[in-house]
Write a structure and sequence with these properties.
Length: 486
């Protein structure tokens, strides 16, 4: 197959930058209806005689692409805004309530809509698809019987966020004396209480969260795909990086890869930090210039078909590790790998940490340090693990980059997907090295889904010697450059 010319690639990049369009997927394009039906069946078993009620998100203001909230999509696979899902534990039936057909809104935000009727039932696998106006009558029946109602209490997560983010925001908004608004979820709960005063209303989030912790085979494949896209993006950033660039220029190369492979957008803002900015865990100003002797850290991943990834790598701005950088990076990597190689299934994280610390002690004893500050920082790094009382290695990853945790678990179980991301910081120099991989717990052990992304020094330097997007721009003939400006 003939390789595309750099000119074609640059033209593609420019065209991508001119369009804000994002791919929007309905559930049937991601999972078969049976996957969502099985999830609803589990909810029915958990709520007994009660009903579960979830509201979809609203339409986006202005020219913003539609994305459904995670909890609603997880149980329905429906991307339509303003929808309401009712799961009846007694009848073992589900109902989806949709807006009636409106020709003027047929393709609002470019998305073909579902409408009440048999076609929508067939597409979604949901038992009954009704007009949204019928919800008032449904609530009358539920209220008359005083049945227990389960509904999400947390504010919705739409992407570019984890559950804790909108939760904190809406708490601040409610507490603000010059605002005081409540979230849609809190307002919806008040409406449900008014419509069914005899019914007890319980939080549905813990039940869904518990289901989301263990990923199905199809979910794992989507996370694997998101991780592949993330890894390709980070590798493209490594190729492209060179002194004199702004941090935000590196993001452009990654965004191109996200768009090319069908991502909705990023999972979170690009964490691209050079030099002293590497000290920060979640730095995202992205306006510093890469210097010749800088180390650069990138932590970036796509939002792909409602699933996320999370990978971090560190590399030299000029493509070659200096002797000092080699020492700093090598001890960081060795200690990181001591933890990585200690992880196994059916084991408590606290026991994994104990095994890792034993490996780390041997690494410190045999490593030849030339800089006392690096040695001191490495010892402190190990000591933090030694004295840690947490039974955790990192954070879960799934429909959110910091995914829901479900009930506290003592051991790692097959189907969990999580990251580890310890940082080795040099306080006086205001520098940090943080590495991160996506790990899948299997029956046999743990699979590193991001293992293909270079992490060893020689592999990073070899990758960075390859041409990047910026090399193509600098070498573009004047006539070609002029044509791009037209």
């Amino acid at each position: 197959m003939k390789k595309k010319s750099w000119f074609v690639i640059i033209v593609t990049l420019v065209l991508c930058s001119l369009s804000a369009a994002q791919p929007v997927f309905n559930g049937s394009e991601i999972f078969p209806p049976e996957e969502f039906s099985a999830r609803r069946a589990r909810i029915m078993a958990l709520i007994g005689d009660g009903v579960a009620i979830l509201q979809a998100t609203t339409e986006r203001p202005g020219e913003q692409p539609m994305r459904q909230n995670n909890q609603f999509f997880y149980l329905s696979g429906v991307a339509d805004p303003w929808s309401i899902l009712v799961i009846d534990g007694r009848s073992k039936q589900s109902m989806l309530l949709l807006e009636p057909r409106n020709e003027r809104r047929e393709f609002r935000n470019g998305i073909p809509r579902l409408y009440p009727g048999s076609e929508a039932a067939k597409a979604t696998g949901i038992d009954a698809i009704l007009d949204r106006a019928e919800f008032a009558h449904i609530m009358e029946e539920i209220g008359a019987e005083g049945r227990m109602i389960h509904t999400p209490f947390r504010p919705e997560v739409l992407g570019n966020a984890s559950a804790s983010d909108p939760l904190k925001l809406w708490k601040m908004i409610k507490a603000d004396p010059w605002d005081g608004r409540v979230s849609r979820e809190e307002a919806f709960i008040a409406k449900l209480k008014a419509a069914a005063p005899r019914s007890e209303i319980k939080d549905l989030d813990p039940l869904i969260d518990e289901m989301r912790v263990i990923k199905s085979p199809r979910e794992i494949e989507l996370i694997r795909e998101a991780t592949w896209i993330s890894g390709l993006a980070i590798m493209e950033v490594m190729r492209d990086a060179q002194p004199g660039q702004y941090e935000y220029e590196l993001q452009a190369a990654a965004d191109y890869i996200f768009k090319k492979y069908g991502a909705y957008g990023p999972s979170y803002f690009a964490l691209i930090a050079t030099g002293r900015n590497t000290y920060y865990t979640h730095y995202h100003k992205n306006t510093a210039v890469l210097q010749e002797d800088d180390l650069v850290q990138i932590d970036y991943a796509p939002d792909y078909k409602y699933y996320q990834s999370d990978i971090t790598r560190v590399f030299p701005a000029n493509g070659k590790f200096s002797p000092w950088q080699r020492e700093y990076y090598t001890i960081s990597l060795k200690l990181y790998q001591a933890l990585l190689t200690s992880i196994k299934a059916h084991t408590a994280p606290r026991d994994i940490i104990k095994i890792a610390v034993g490996k780390m002690d041997k690494i410190l004893a045999s490593f030849r340090f030339t800089d006392p500050k690096i040695e001191e920082a490495a010892a402190a790094y190990v000591e933090r693990f030694r004295t840690s009382k947490r039974n955790s290695l990192g954070h879960m990853v799934g429909m959110a980059v910091h995914d829901v945790r479900g009930k506290p678990r003592e051991i790692l179980e097959p189907g969990m997907v999580f990251t580890i991301e310890p940082a080795l910081r040099l306080e006086d120099e205001h520098l940090g090295i943080r590495l991160e991989d996506i790990l899948l717990v299997t029956e046999d052990g743990v699979e590193n889904l991001s293992e293909f992304v270079p992490i060893e020094i020689d592999d990073i330097e070899e990758l960075m010697a390859q041409p990047g997007v910026s090399d193509a721009i600098l070498k573009l003939p004047p006539a070609a450059a002029k044509s791009l400006r037209r």
